[in-house]
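User: I'm putting together notes for a lab meeting next week and I want to include a structural view of one of the chains we've been expressing. I don't have a solved structure, so I'd like a prediction I can at least talk through. The sequence is below, exactly as it appears in our construct file.
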Amino acid sequence: MTTTRFAPSPTGYIHIGNLRAALFNHAIARQGGGTFILRLDDTDPLRSKEEYAEGIREDLRWLGLLWDREERQSRRGAAYEAALARLKAMSRAYECFETPTELELKRKTQLATGRPPVYDRAALRLGEADKDRLRAERPSHWRFLLDPGRIEWEDGILGPISIDASSVSDPVLRKEDGQWLYTFASSVDDGEMGVTDVVRGADHVTNTATQIQIIRALGHEPPRFAHHSLLTGPQGEGLSKRLGTLSLRDLRARGVEPMAVLSLMARLGSSEPVELRRSVEEVVAGFRLDGFGAAPTKFDEADLWPLTHRALAAKDAFEVDGALAEAGVPPTLRAPFWALVRDNLGTLAEAAGWWRLLSRGGGTVAPEDRAFAEEALRRLPEPPYDASTWAAWTEALKASTGRKGRALFQPLRRLVTGRDAGPDMAALMPLLQAKPRLAQESAPPSHDEGGAGRPAPPVRARGPAVS
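Assistant: Thanks for the context. Below is the predicted structure for the 467-residue chain, given as structure tokens.
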């Protein structure tokens, strides 16, 4: 039975980079008919906050990446104590006394002399009297004693990996203040929780080498590991300075659709083309871990907006009923209203702008078209309108003014909608709740009536090849 886990630290909100670990592990668990664990790595009491933990849950629910059970490392201290005691009994854990300042000095000296910055195991050379003296002076930390030789595994993305244990420092298990380190706590949890598969970023490869030895020392079989490439910006630049604006919380607030995020991230960096999916189940069914490569993956936020537009256009009215109700659309008009506007939305919030327009009226025209607009309003009766209104109105104006083509239709569209493009006008007229009225001054058309986000208008949206 497949068991995977997503193990974020609740020291901030999920961003687009660490979403990949959540999505990949969720997909593998669901494909294997197994268990997906949300495991909060909250062993740092100073930086871990409940607001971030709840934010992580909210983001995963928004995406539809639902977990089967939740674990918190802050509640597993007894398990870590027991595991450390077992390693001590096997002489695989040893006590160290260097301060952070002393360790940093050692590191700088090693680098200055051309040696790798690997812990020199000086603590192993201490006698009992030395240890007693140091214990009286300062707190200690504990390290895991790595076996010599090469640590090897078949990575699910990177292929065969081999790391010389002598090139890696013995990992710290517990700090001077009693805090458990990620490398150790994660190893204990993966072994005791029966985790069979772990997908995470390529920056964890060295961690994996040491964790394989820790897990085996504790008597468990290591999971199958896979390390996905790290995301960069569209020009290959690092994303670290932009992670705040690329949090899922921020993208959601700006109107990005969850299926746009999942559809893009399930294929970005793989050999498969990006395909817009309608559900998490479709994403899972089309996911292939072996299609991903090791090269850094370029991520461009702009690619989310055309996918969001297409995701909205594919929705039925009942799927957005709550948003339409909030916008004030009457229940009997929600289905025809949604059918009218859904192909013209950059974000769902923009639907509210369209309803305000249809329910209150009001538009603008260019100064040179103002006299024509006034004539047009005189020839348009009060609502209600029907499917024949647009044709009858335009034919009457064509006869009375001599205008035709774009000179006739474009000013009328601007008069009714305040925009240069949009839904079919014959279908729009029956939904008008108020007669159009001419604004006192002309104004440019708005592409973001709902006030959420700043996506490119649908007609100009760009993005990766999608199908």
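A couple of points you could mention at the meeting. The chain has 18 helices and twelve strands. The first strand starts at residue 3 and ends at 6.

User: Perfect, that's what I needed.
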